[in-house]
Amino acid sequence: MKGFVSFIELVVAIIILIVAFAILFPPFRYTTKWGEALALIKGRDIVSSLASSNKMYEYSFNSSLAEEFLSQALRETNFIYSYSTTNAVKNEIFIACNCTLEEINELSKLLSGFEINGREIEFLIFYSRLDEINDPNKRSDLLLILGNKELDEYYGEIKKYLESGKGIILVADFSDQLSGEIYEKIFGLNSSGGIQIDETLLYDTFRKKPTSAKEINYEPWKYFYHVSIPIFTSPYFGVIPLDPNLQQENCISFNGSLNLQAYLINENALPYSFEFWTCNDSKIFIDSDLNGKADKEIFLGQQFSLKMNSIPYNFSLNYIKKGKVGISIKPEYDFFDFIKYEWDYQAGFSKYNLILPVDGNYERVLIKLKDESFEIAGCILNSLTGKTAWISDFRKEGITDDERLLLASLIFSVSNKNPTQLYPRMKIGYTTSYLNVENKDVYEIYEFRLTLGYPF
To answer: What are the Cα distances from residue 94, in Å, to 99, 123, 142, 166, 410?
Structure first.
């Protein structure tokens, strides 16, 4: 019996020693990181292949091409992937519009057809109340507010919206003094009463040309003078009406009009409507003197001038497609005055309600009355609490193509450019980034990101 007890004590002692050794001297384990290294190397190889193919831009914004390429490159692996772009105008811009359904339909027509570096941009516009702009079930990149409204009660919602990286554009005129946190803190606006001018000034223009990409007016200025105005055309089956200086040709032709600025007839503003006819995909014939017959032959890629109110302005014919022609405006350009004023017929003067930058920084003024004697703003930008823009209501006398382009340029500048691609659940994953540049129409620098990882 005594010997049996000693045996049990021996067994217990051995077990204690084994446990102690296991704790004090754990077994050596060597864990490799081949999985992580392979994901990183494979990601770099794929991005390098895309870059060297000179098709990085197409793959960045064409999901069908990207999916096909990535599926082929990773078909014999168990990688899962995700990709996105950052700091580039999105192919689809979701706009929450605080406006009427009629205004939404009109905006959809005005903003259709725009392209950036050959890719068409789609504007998806839907109605939104101001108290639901942060609803996670309603995706948006931009809030567009049409008309002068009481906004202060929505200050918290609007501030939160901007903090998420999205932008706001306010299209409105003001007859009275501005008051409230929204105008001062969100849009950076102030008013200082009215100013009387003893004449009617007909033009608005960009306040200045930016000298650096860091300047707040750089992006809208860049987009306005480089993005083409999309002009939709219809098939034309007759003989193109030409002035005697031009020769008739056998063309497949489409017909459209470029509507710009305005001229006054009996106090009514009518746009300059320059009619044109395409000839195959190589050139257009345009009626520049408004006599009903084309007097200029413009080839694809050629710059040309059109006179409005005896002032010549420069344009460029950028593309001719079936049903659509793209024409861009070249510096410097003037808009027919859309800044709100009241004309006193008895006294003989115009009265403008002055809207000013609240901080006195006139570098934030994008559009102003053309006369150098007056700092009367028609569009003011702000970036202190997020990207915002106020513009005087340019819709009063109908919207011309130059105003379409101005609104699109503001949207391109202010809208959210953060990636929306959701990453799948990965145990481990590595992201390869690549900075790409495209400059077919507009100078774009953006970041392409490819993430490779494992699902388990």
So the answer is: 15, 6, 7, 10, 14
Contact yes or no for 301/339 (Cβ under 8 A) = no
User: Can you name the residues that pair with 96 across neighbouring β-strands?
Assistant: 126, 143
Cβ 450 vs Cβ 63: under 8 Å: no
Nearest CA to 405 out of 397, 396, 394, 415 is that of 394
Six-digit token pair at 63?
A: 């999901």
pLDDT tens digits, 4-59: 556 677 777 777 777 766 666 666 565 667 778 888 899 999 999 999 988 999 99
* Look-up of token digits 């115009």: 350
Give the number of other Cβ atoms within 10 Å of residue 88's Cβ: 21
The domains of the chain, with CATH numbers, are 39-88+422-433+449-453 (no CATH), 92-225+335-414 (3.40.50), 234-322 (no CATH)
- CA gap 143, 130 in Å, rounded: 9
Kindly state the tokens that stand for 178.
């501005």
CA dihedral 242, 246, 252, 257 (to 10 degrees): -50
φ/ψ of 64, rounded to 5, equals -65, -45
The C-alpha atoms of residue 162 and residue 179 are separated, in whole angstroms, by: 20
The verdict on whether omega for the bond into residue 332 sits within 30 degrees of 0, i.e. cis, is: yes
pLDDT tens, 292-314? 999 999 999 999 999 999 999 99
CB distance 336 to 269 below 8 Å? yes
d(CA 137, CA 242): 55
